[in-house]
Amino acid sequence: MAELLTLVAPAPKPQPKAKPKPKPKAKAKPQPKAKAPAKVPAPLPEAPAPARPEKLAPERNAPPAEAAPPSPSLQDLLGTDFEDAVAAEVDAQASSTPEAVGSYEADLMARIVAAWSRPPSARNGMSCDLRLTLVPTGELVSVTLVRSSGNAAFDRSADLAVRRAAPFRVPEDPAVFDAYFRTVTVTFSPNDLRY
Amino acid sequence: MVSLRTRTFAAVFLLGLLSLGGGARAELAIEITQGVDAPVPLAVVPFAWQGRGRPPEDLGKIIRFDLARSGQFAMTAPEDMLSLPSRPEDLYVRDWRVQGIAYVLLGSLRATDQGVEARYALFDVFAERLLFNETLEAPASQLRALAHRISDRAYEQLTGIPGAFSTRLLYVVAQNIAT
What is the architecture of the domain spanning B40-159? Predict the structure, then answer.
């Protein structure tokens, strides 16, 4: 599975990332045609592809041995670049998503709190877990009791709270929605009751 | 283009998860420790009467008063109800849901040779689930007690505490104890 993903990922990667990627790739191709490996960094800044073709044609005969060394090193470079990029992406993900998700999460919690009426048999320390399944419109499509408190009235009050709280405000970005809001586990454990 | 980007994003994200070695899903897990405890909207539909003349007691009204007095419920007045079903199969969830009513208690009363028979049901509107559907019989003279029994059933089902609407106070007068 991991191999498959690594194979798939590098190609489309440059699109979202924009700048750094396309250039190394452009480099890799024209180079072998160019005669001197020393030139490697020079031709790059401008798009070399359209300008060269005619000139390059005759030079094709130039010894491939010379051309060979630069391309592996570039590809290595490409490889490490990609890994760095992935690492950066993961870091960005780890640090940026909680913020993006935070306000939606707070909103969801506030709605459930406002909708939750605990029955008189509820006691501090009781606890149950519900698993909610949401769709991208924010509507609730299913509620499953994954852990009961042992008190049916308490469990039902939690079930009612999430159903009354729906629909929820959810992120519009489908990837963020899928990652965080497709399924949400809610633990109900009151600590503000009189008993 | 969008789907390509999305897929890329997902792939990278998955890769990230794999490389982190957690394999854990990022789905939200939240904890709710407080509630507002507003009375739960409950509707007690007037009971249908199947017999001659007028019903001997208004069962729905007695039950409505019982449950309202508990303070746990916000009762819906019959005139605000969009429909008056007397059997669960006649209940249209939407009629109740639009008003935010969480539970509906409904039923009917029928004259029998021995007295009366009440059929009653409690419906969870948001979960679209029947919580109970029962029958109770009583002599015609015990209609009020019958209504209180139904209140007890609904109260216990919804609150987790046995209802006390049928309770009667019994005063025991002791005389000549010390002789």
Answer: 3-Layer(aba) Sandwich (3.40)
